[in-house]
Specification:
Length: 314
């Protein structure tokens, strides 16, 4: 995403935040909100990746904890000409993944345990390649900063809901109601502003990185089914971060297509299949899978870990 676009997005988010501040506390509230917004934008630039990762309970893994996943990402990063990102695992049965970080030198990719247990090695490679494409396109800065600010707006809305009845505020109880309406609206603006085209671009680039568009297409089909069927509680608690994920982590019934943060999976799969048919992106998949058509699985972290059994990733 271009610099102007990033700046515009941040300005819109900040303006929204100021409006919410005004409705809670009048001009004084707006000034306090402005100071908070300035501090928050500064904080978000440096820390939004950590915030998002902790919201989802992501834990860092090394070559020792998850040799297969970390090795896979290492190979893909080399193919993409990117520095090795930090790798995280999120303990949730819903298959999903996201990337974050302010630039390629400070990037992180996260995969859920559901993704790793449900997908073949080739499909995981397709998904992680899509996430590395976001890193390469520098979508991650915009995505994480907007998520942080949208999350703060949501928190302020909750605050207004409980304390907004204060008679000293210009709108009093009405302000609280307006704020409660504004918060989801703000989330919607974030979802719309983060162009769905970013997803298509990351799909195409991801297919080139992993070397086989079918891997990502197969993964998207499975992801779609899994995300619809299995709830992601951390994502439901932090809906402002939903757009970070490769497929919408929120329960499908809550979102109609008009307000969806993600393009229809069927369209994404079709674009990838067409890319494969045209011979695009097929480069042997050197760094990624074991090669060949036989599906292989990424075994649980630590390989054959003996002893305590606390789910596949210990
Ligand atoms: Zn994506």
């Amino acid at each position: 995403m271009s610099f102007t676009r990033v700046a515009f997005l941040l300005a819109v988010m900040t303006g929204l935040f100021l409006t919410v501040g005004y409705m809670i506390g009048g001009p004084g509230g707006m000034i306090i909100a402005l100071l908070i917004a300035l501090g928050m934008n500064f904080f978000a630039y440096w820390n939004s990746d950590k915030v998002v990762l902790s919201m989802h309970g992501a834990r860092a893994v090394t070559e020792r904890d998850a040799p297969q996943l970390v090795g896979l990402v290492r190979g893909l990063a080399a193919r993409a000409d990117l520095p090795m990102p930090r790798v995280y695992i999120i303990d949730t049965p819903q298959p999903n993944a996201f990337a974050t970080g302010r630039d390629p030198n400070n990037a992180a990719v996260a995969a859920t345990t559901g993704l790793l247990s449900m997908m073949t090695r080739e499909q995981v490679a397709g998904v992680m390649a899509h996430e590395l494409a976001h890193v390469k396109h520098r979508d991650t800065l915009t995505m994480t900063i907007t998520a942080t600010i949208a999350g703060a707006i949501g928190m302020l809305a909750n605050f207004a809901f409980f304390f907004g009845g204060n008679r000293d505020t210009p709108l009093g109880g009405l302000g609280a109601i307006l704020v409660a309406i504004l918060a989801p609206l703000a989330a919607m603006i974030v979802q719309m502003a983060i162009s769905r085209h970013n997803e298509y671009n990351a799909d195409a680039e991801g297919a080139r990185i992993c070397g086989n568009p079918h891997w990502l297409a197969d993964a998207l089909e499975r992801l779609e089914q899994g995300a619809r069927r299995i709830d992601n509680h951390a994502a439901e608690r932090n809906p402002a971060t939903a757009h970070l994920f490769i497929v919408n982590p929120l329960h499908a019934h809550k979102h109609d297509s008009l307000f969806s943060t993600h393009p229809a999976t069927a369209n994404r799969v079709r674009a990838l299949r067409e890319m494969a048919a045209a011979g695009g992106g097929v480069g042997g998949g050197g760094g990624a899978g074991a090669g060949g058509r036989s599906p292989s699985r990424i075994p649980p972290s630590g390989g054959a870990r003996v002893g305590r059994r606390r789910g596949p990733w210990g």
